[in-house]
Amino acid sequence: MSTIKIRSKRFADHTLIRTLIAHPMETGHNKNDATGELIPAHFIQTLTLTHNGKVMSQCQMGYGVSKNPFFSFKIKSAKAGDTVSISWQDNLAYSDTLTHIIP
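Above: the chain's sequence. Below: its structure in token form.
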């Protein structure tokens, strides 16, 4: 099961792409309540949006992003049947990709 959810909505002059990513986004500064030890850093470093195979946006992030981050993008050239892919990679080398076809 993917950690990414993608929704799209077409408007007259653009298409809105919204995505929600299930990820803990730990900073490395929080302590475990039971043991008092620091929870290791675990955060998304790179988020990439592609439209029909072309990279439209690539975001470099740090640990300052909230848990389960939400992102939205506007694409002016998108039309019905086009594909949009969202992918991420984190600092522990985990990654995920999801492709969405614009209705």
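The mean pLDDT is 96.
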